């Protein structure tokens, strides 16, 4: 059984090849993470005494079946919606000295528009045939308006952006329980300055 | 000693297995990275709308609802009218509550109260369908929902 001795295969570079492949796959593969706009639905309950909202504190956004926007009874392009919502929320129309006076608002202070962000309500009315794409686009713009104002206030009070800190908290970049709680408290303070009051009316049937 | 050495020189040298651990680790890592825990098999078209003011979804406490027109290969059978999918099958609007309760029971017990409904709806669907789903969710008292979107913005696409 005399066999010819075959030379040993040099396996020294095997590890390098393996690592190269590993790194290639690490770089090219992306793990899909779902992101979206979160909402809380109102529970079903009989509202005994619906709170009265003054007309000036209500910002009505109407979307029709052809995806056209009617904001405060004026036709509007989607790109102008964000600014219109910011102006409305930030108006602070209550006269100075009154308990409803908003001392951090930087809006035009028109008595015709909202008293303060606490009272301002945005109401979205959709048609059943509105496309979902448009629906999300409108929601996105309105959330953007709130985020813009919250960012502005948190920068004024604490020197950082509301949206950035919320993200860091979500991603677990804030270490330590005490730090987390302190941040949570600050975030809530900002949220109170501009509470998100988005109301959705039951959509109308098409053509009504 | 010389006796041993002589014998060895006649035999076939063994194939080196030094790199075997590397190969195994490479495979292991590859599968760890690529594997996504079993996702639902999509029966509907699912082109999500774009948004940029988004929050992250907590996967461990969410149930998914898909809606949209049936995918191209199912259109012969189910038509082109938008449909709702929960789990692996189409669900009728009247059947949503049952299907969702079933899905919720698959979550960890301590997270069942914090359940979040993730809506993956095709951008061409009518809002009416989404409203119907939301009404069912309210009746079921599952009030947290999240509209899943893709990064981007409708304004500058």
TrEMBL record, chain A:
<dbReference type="GO" id="GO:0015031">
    <property type="term" value="P:protein transport"/>
</dbReference>
<feature type="transmembrane region" description="Helical">
    <location>
        <begin position="12"/>
        <end position="31"/>
    </location>
</feature>
<keyword id="KW-1003">Cell membrane</keyword>
<comment type="similarity">
    <text>Belongs to the ExbD/TolR family.</text>
</comment>
<dbReference type="Pfam" id="PF02472">
    <property type="entry name" value="ExbD"/>
</dbReference>
<keyword id="KW-0812">Transmembrane</keyword>
<protein>
    <submittedName>
        <fullName>Biopolymer transporter ExbD</fullName>
    </submittedName>
</protein>
<dbReference type="GO" id="GO:0022857">
    <property type="term" value="F:transmembrane transporter activity"/>
</dbReference>
<keyword id="KW-1133">Transmembrane helix</keyword>
<keyword id="KW-0813">Transport</keyword>
<keyword id="KW-0472">Membrane</keyword>
<keyword id="KW-0653">Protein transport</keyword>
<dbReference type="GO" id="GO:0005886">
    <property type="term" value="C:plasma membrane"/>
</dbReference>
<dbReference type="InterPro" id="IPR003400">
    <property type="entry name" value="ExbD"/>
</dbReference>
UniProtKB/TrEMBL annotation, chain B:
<dbReference type="GO" id="GO:0015031">
    <property type="term" value="P:protein transport"/>
</dbReference>
<dbReference type="GO" id="GO:0022857">
    <property type="term" value="F:transmembrane transporter activity"/>
</dbReference>
<dbReference type="GO" id="GO:0005886">
    <property type="term" value="C:plasma membrane"/>
</dbReference>
<keyword id="KW-1133">Transmembrane helix</keyword>
<keyword id="KW-0653">Protein transport</keyword>
<keyword id="KW-0472">Membrane</keyword>
<comment type="similarity">
    <text>Belongs to the ExbD/TolR family.</text>
</comment>
<dbReference type="InterPro" id="IPR003400">
    <property type="entry name" value="ExbD"/>
</dbReference>
<protein>
    <submittedName>
        <fullName>Biopolymer transporter ExbD</fullName>
    </submittedName>
</protein>
<keyword id="KW-1003">Cell membrane</keyword>
<keyword id="KW-0813">Transport</keyword>
<feature type="transmembrane region" description="Helical">
    <location>
        <begin position="20"/>
        <end position="37"/>
    </location>
</feature>
<keyword id="KW-0812">Transmembrane</keyword>
<dbReference type="Pfam" id="PF02472">
    <property type="entry name" value="ExbD"/>
</dbReference>
């Amino acid at each position: 059984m005399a066999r010819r001795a075959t030379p040993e295969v040099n396996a020294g570079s095997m590890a390098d090849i393996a690592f190269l492949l590993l790194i290639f796959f690490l770089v090219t593969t992306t793990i899909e993470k779902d992101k979206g706009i979160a909402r809380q639905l109102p529970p079903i309950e009989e509202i005994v005494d619906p709170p009265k909202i003054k007309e000036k504190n209500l910002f009505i956004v109407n979307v029709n079946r052809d995806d056209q926007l009617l904001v405060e009874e004026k036709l509007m392009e989607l790109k102008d919606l964000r600014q219109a919502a910011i102006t409305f929320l930030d108006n602070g129309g209550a006269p100075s000295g009154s308990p409803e006076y908003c001392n951090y608002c930087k809006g035009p202070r028109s008595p015709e528009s909202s008293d303060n962000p606490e009272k301002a309500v945005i109401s979205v009315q959709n048609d059943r045939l509105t496309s979902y794409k448009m629906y999300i686009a409108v929601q996105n713009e309105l959330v953007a308006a709130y985020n813009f104002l919250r960012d502005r206030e948190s920068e004024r009070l604490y020197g950082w952006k509301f949206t950035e800190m919320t993200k860091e908290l979500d991603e677990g970049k804030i270490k330590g329980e005490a730090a987390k709680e302190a941040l949570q408290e600050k975030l809530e303070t900002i949220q109170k300055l501009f509470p998100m009051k988005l109301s959705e009316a039951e959509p109308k049937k098409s053509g009504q | 000693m010389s006796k041993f050495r002589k014998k060895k020189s006649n035999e076939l040298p063994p194939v080196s297995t030094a790199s075997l651990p590397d190969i195994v680790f490479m495979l292991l890592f590859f599968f760890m990275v690529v594997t996504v825990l079993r996702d639902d098999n999509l029966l509907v078209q699912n082109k999500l709308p774009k948004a940029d003011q988004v929050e992250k979804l907590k996967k461990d406490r969410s149930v998914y609802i898909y809606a949209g027109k049936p995918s191209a290969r199912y259109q012969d059978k189910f038509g082109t009218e938008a449909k709702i999918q929960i789990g692996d099958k189409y669900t009728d609007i009247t059947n949503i509550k049952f299907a969702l309760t079933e899905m919720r029971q698959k979550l960890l017990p301590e997270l069942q109260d914090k359940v979040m409904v993730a809506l993956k709806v095709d951008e061409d669907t009518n809002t009416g369908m989404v409203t119907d789903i939301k009404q069912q969710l309210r009746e079921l008292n599952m009030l947290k929902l999240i509209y899943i979107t893709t990064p981007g913005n409708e304004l500058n696409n």
